[in-house]
Design goal:
Layout lengths: L7 H5 L19 H7 L5 H4 L5 H8 L2 H6 L4 E2 L16 H9 L6 E6 L2 E7 L2 H4 E3 L7 E2 L1 E3 L8 H5 L7 H8 L5 E2 L3 H4 L5 E2 L20 H12 L6 E3 L4 E3 L10 H9 L13 H12 L30 H4 L4 H4 L29 H12 L5 H13 L1
Helix pairs in contact: 2-12, 4-6, 11-12, 13-17, 16-17
Length: 385
């Protein structure tokens, strides 16, 4: 097994000097949107000091290459005619984009024309753009999972990684990331989930380890490499870094995330009559409503104690068991169905390529005996949620 680099610094460092990336004017630490989009929590200590990705970006990552690994550009952050007057095959243009805070989820410190540091933010994985300018360039869509993003390929650009390490990261592919790889050394990436429509859901992660702020803290410190503290004896992690640049910002970050509403399905994207029939199946013969209880379409808060998540054993729902075994709970929560039209593939591991595959899985596993037309109607309903 390769030596684990990704975020390993966050598991060992205790007194590192915090660094902060360039921030756009007008932002402040109590603004949840600003934190979500631009706060690196001091994770330059990983991405710059350890992985040295700023060196790679300034020497060899052009805008075309950046778009090729799924990075997005916020067109609203750019001066008029910027894209039309720059060479998009030149890494110097990428540095300019960073100087304008236009690369979604990346914050760079640029002095003159020299990139001095790089850090990442929540928006890297949990925002995309509307492609209103061209593919990968447009207005921000916060909370939408960036399923084009290839985090493993980005990490693998680091000059400090071995060939074996790079092969592991490159195996993940677009839209997937393993948030436990640096903890236990196993390699099972999961699909990047949406961060919208979380109001009232509770225990929002695949395995229900904790509420939103628990996961924000875990990701910021253990995965992003931020300068903060995280403690959970259930998974054997205890990290203390002072000053804590994460915990004080969690309440504002939570408020912003809860404000991100579920995007409605595009007009004409589903058959309304078929969806109506599918809704009846959802509540009836298909028995989906047993676990996916409206309005949040999950049962994670249905237990006798709302502070304890109601979860499902992998064997009870025919789900891949290994990822759950790596978590604090060892089980899965019922997925809160929202904007399913937007974020295929499905299941935590992306094993269902589309909604037909999801319906087929449960039809087989539970022996529902659905006919082809009933499956199609059920899919139309799922597309309408």
């Amino acid at each position: 097994m390769a030596v684990l680099f990704i975020m390993a610094l966050a598991l060992t460092i205790s007194n590192a000097r915090p660094t902060s990336g360039a921030k756009p004017s007008g932002g402040h630490s109590t603004d949840g949107q600003f934190i979500f989009r631009f706060d690196t929590f001091g994770d330059e200590q990983l991405w710059t000091d350890t992985l040295r990705l700023h060196e790679v970006i300034r020497s060899s990552v052009s805008p075309v290459a950046a778009l090729g690994v799924g990075l997005k550009v916020d067109s609203a952050a750019l001066p008029p005619d910027f894209l039309a007057t720059r060479d998009l095959n030149d890494p110097a243009t990428t540095v300019e984009l960073l100087k304008h805070n236009a690369v979604v989820g990346l914050v760079g410190k640029v002095e003159g024309n020299q990139l001095k540091s790089i850090g990442i933010t929540c928006a890297l994985c949990h925002s995309t753009v509307d492609d209103s300018v061209t593919t990968g360039i447009g207005n921000r869509l916060d909370g939408w999972p960036n399923l084009d993003l290839n985090p493993g390929a980005i990490i693998a650009l680091s000059p400090v990684l071995t060939t074996e390490q790079k092969a592991i990261y490159n195996s993940w592919g677009p839209g997937k990331y393993d948030p436990r790889f640096n903890v236990d050394g196993l390699n099972l990436p999961v699909v990047i989930p949406p961060a919208f429509g979380l109001q009232g859901v509770g225990f929002e992660t695949f395995t229900g380890d904790g509420p939103i702020s628990y996961w924000n803290n875990y990701v910021a410190v253990v995965e992003m490499g931020g300068h903060g503290s995280f403690f959970d004896p259930r998974i054997g992690i205890s990290i203390t870094q002072e000053p804590d640049l994460v915990t004080p910002k969690l309440p504002a970050l939570l408020r912003y995330q809860l404000s991100l509403s579920t995007p409605p399905p595009p007009s004409g994207s589903f058959d309304r009559l078929a969806a109506k029939r599918g809704a009846a199946l959802f509540k009836g013969k298909a028995r989906c409503v047993t676990c996916h209880v409206p309005p949040t379409f999950t049962d994670v808060l249905s237990g006798p104690d709302p502070t304890v998540p109601f979860l499902h054993d992998p064997s009870a729902v025919g789900t891949e068991p290994v990822y759950a075994s790596r978590s604090a709970t060892k089980r899965y929560r019922a997925t809160p169905l929202r904007a399913l039209w937007q974020h295929a593939p499905y299941f935590h591991d992306g094993s269902a390529i589309d909604l037909f595959a999801v319906v087929d899985h449960y039809d087989r596993f539970f022996g529902l005996g659905l006919k082809a037309k009933q499956k199609a109607d059920l899919v139309e309903f799922l597309k309408s949620i």
